[in-house]
Each structure stands twice: as C-alpha cells, then as structure tokens.
Amino acid sequence: MIEHSKYKEPNLKDRYITLDMLMPCFKKVASSSLRVLGKSVQGDPISAFTLGHGKHRVLMWSQMHGNESTTTKAVWDMVNYLQGNETLAKTILDSCTLMVVPMLNPDGAKAYTRVNANQIDLNRDAQQRSQPESKVLRELFEAFKPDFCFNLHDQRTLFSAGSAKKPATVSFLSPASNEQRDVTPSREVAMKLIVAMNRVLQELIPGQVGRYDDGFNANCVGDAFQMQGVPTILFEAGHYEKDYMREHTREYIFHALMAALDTISKEKIDAQRTEDYYRIPENEKCFFDILIQNPQTINSNLEKGSRIGIRFQEILEGNAIQFKPELAEIGKLEGFFGHETFNCLNKKDLEQLSKHNEIMALIKRIEK
C-alpha cells in the first residue's frame, strides 16, 4: 500500500480550498502541460494540465461544486506521487495520459457554495450548457476524447453505507445512460473499475464504502458522458470518524484514484466481476452529526423516549468553515445513528453536552 503521508500536498488542507490556494501547486506541473480552458462567470481562469503520455486517456475534474474540496486535495496528492520515482508512477505515466481539471468552479469555491456565480448547479447543466464552466468541460471532453472520466465530488455526513452503523466514507457510482438503467458496455467498464477500487478500500475502511443512487438524469454530467459511451465514475468523498476537515478521507480518495489508474494502466479491468459492484451496499441516509437520547432531561416539553437529530451547517466565516448545529428531526428516530451520541440520562454525557452552548440552546427552545 502506498504511504500517503509522503505525498500529501502541504499547501492544501481543511475544507476551504480556493483558486488562490492552488497557485503554488500549479508550479509543480510543467508549464508546457498547463493551459487555461476558459473563464468562470466572474472571470477567474479555469485551468487544466496533463500528466503522462500513454494510450489510455483519463479525464478528471474536481470542485464542480465549489464547496466540495476533498477530492481537489486528493488530486494534488496524486500528482505528487506521480511525479516521484515509484515504479507504479512510471507505469501509469507510460500507459496513461491524464487530463486534470482541479477546480472547475472557482467562483463557487471562493464563496463556498455548491452553485456557480449565477446560482446554477453545474452538475444539472449537462444538456443546456448555459454556463461558461459547463461549456469549458464539454469542449474539453470533445477535444480530449477520453477513454475514462472521473467525476470528483463530496457528499454529506448523513450518508451511511447501507443501513448499518457505518458512514459512507467513500461512495461510487457508475451512472446510468438511460431511464432503464441498462448495463451498457461503458457502464460495465465503470462498474469493474469501481470493484477494483473497492477491493483496495475494504482493506483500509472495511464496510465504509457505499454505492450512490443510480437514478438517471440526463442533465447530470456523469450520465451525459456515459450516454456518449465513455466509462464514467462518480467519486463521492464522505465522512470519516471525527474528520470534519476530511483529511483522512482525502487519503482514501487518493488510494481509490491510484487503484483505478493501476487497474487501467495494467489493463486489469476485465479481471473484475460486474456482480461485485452490486455487492457494494447502497447509500442510505441514516446518520445525524449528533444524536441526542432522552432530551426530556433538558426540556420537559419533549416526550419520554424521543430523540433529537442534529446536523451541521457548513458556514464560511473569514477563510475557514465553521460547523453550526441545526435541528433536523425529533422523534423515535429508529434506525438512525449519530456520528456522536449523547444520552442525557448518562451523567458524563450530560456534562459533555452542557459544554455545547448552541446545541443546548436549540434543545431548550423546542416547544410542544
């Protein structure tokens, strides 16, 4: 297994990653491989670079949603590895040509929003292509003619890997290319690549890999590229225990990327079994950030046996992301879990919870 810490990009950390922060990273790639594809709504450059010179052409893009930065960090960790002297790095660069767009939505990244500066979700603009960022990606897709596409995202902390008490730290999807969700040749190739990545991740985070919902939407970029017959994979970076800055998750995305490129470069795709893709548990929405049991100890308006689910809002303050608690649900909440759980009948738990002023205020404000 690759020692990720040796290649972790020091210029990128935490959740707030902007174009300015990428500038030192761009200096690490050859200027001859770096190019500006176009500009965002607010006029910031959208850049891409190539690595390698092999026959297998891989297009990957990150931060299509500006507030989904974990994969951007992992991409630069990958670049650092590929520029080293490891045997696998040489094999990949000899066998593959990578086209990397590390930040498709620089305006959204700066504002820490999912959408672009025109409030458009670029991942719902694949057909109309009304936004400059959407046009840039499609023009690159048509010019580069990739054999594989990696669509790199983050997902919320609410997702579990199936219904078990396991967070979906990494999730994958081989998007459908029609309403019937047929397993077309390109979709099957993407499934097999996911199987190869999952095998590696199960050694690192057993039970914490999920399979994203495959409902068809032609306006989603992954579905649209799959419709063009190009194997496309959706990567979703999710939650790892006590890792809200997703510094652990970036490592698992890095290992997933390396496993995929290893499989492609060594032409091992056909050695994988499609049926193993369906053995990956589907994502479910079973987690709250905080689950509070027996809250009637704090607020007598609440029924005995009820539980409170709290989820965090991610708020940009200055140049950092703050996690603000928000009341999500009240009820029995059977089948739900908390990334952190407090039982208010437990003296130690109640003492710990009492230190969280905002959460205590939320509980006390609840009326009948």
Please write the string of helix (H) and strand (E) elements.
HEEEHHEHHEEEHEHEHHEEEEEHH
Q: Give me the CATH architecture of the largest domain, please.
A: 3-Layer(aba) Sandwich
Major sheet: order of its strands? 1-2-4-3-5-9-7-8
The residue ranges in which pLDDT falls below 50 over 5 or more consecutive positions are none
Strand percentage, roughly?
15-25%
> What structural class results from the helix and strand content?
alpha/beta
> Given the structure, what is the number of helices?
11
- How many domains, in number, for the residues? 2
- Going by CATH, the homologous superfamily of the largest domain would be Zn peptidases
Main sheet summary: 8 strands, mixed
Number of strands: 14
**Name of the CATH class of the largest domain:** Alpha Beta
Helix content: 25-40%
Kindly provide the radius of gyration, computed on alpha-carbon positions and rounded to a whole number of angstroms: 21 Å
Instruction: Describe the global form.
Output: globular
Termini separation: 54 Å
Which topology of the largest domain does CATH recognise? Aminopeptidase
- Overall average pLDDT: 97
Task: For this entry, give a set of tags.
four-stranded mixed β-sheet; metallocarboxypeptidase activity; Aminopeptidase; alpha/beta; Peptidase_M14; 11 helices; 368 residues
What does the model show?
The chain has about 375 residues and is α/β, with parallel strands linked by helices. It has eleven helices and 14 strands. It folds into two domains: about 5-285, 3-Layer(aba) Sandwich (Aminopeptidase), CATH 3.40.630.10; about 285-365, no CATH class. The strands form three sheets. It has an eight-stranded mixed β-sheet, sandwiched between helices. A hairpin with a 2-residue loop joins strand 12 (about 305-315) and strand 13. The longest helix is centred in the middle third of the chain and has 20 residues, at about 185-205. It is globular.
